[in-house]
Amino acid sequence: MEKMIQDFIESSKQQWDEEYKAQMWDYLSDITEYARYSVVYGYIRKFAAAEGILDMGCGAGNLYDLLTEQEKPAYVGVDLSEEAIKIASRKTDAQIFHCADINHYTPPRSFDVIVFNESLQYVPNTPAKLLE
Question: Mind listing the domains of the chain with CATH numbers?
């Protein structure tokens, strides 16, 4: 089962990289998507001090864009796609974006908020991951 999951993750990584190279996900930074990210931001502000935010499946860092318009939170973004991380990393000089499989990523510290924006479905053992 683990081998099957790893094979799926590797093929997904290649697909995500190709799609980011082809700019298929650029629309996520368009004004039409702003409302969705604003809802996520609203939940962050309502339920946490947002002193530390871990964005699992951060893509090109669109949530980071919205967060830094409002404040300067301690933020870390993780995504499987190297291409997405390259795009996200252009947004700041800080080394806050990391290319990694969210199933095997170990955060460097604890966070007040962990965001899985359209990425939780890629975590086979969700309860165990959330307890980490």
Answer: 2-131 (3.40.50.150)
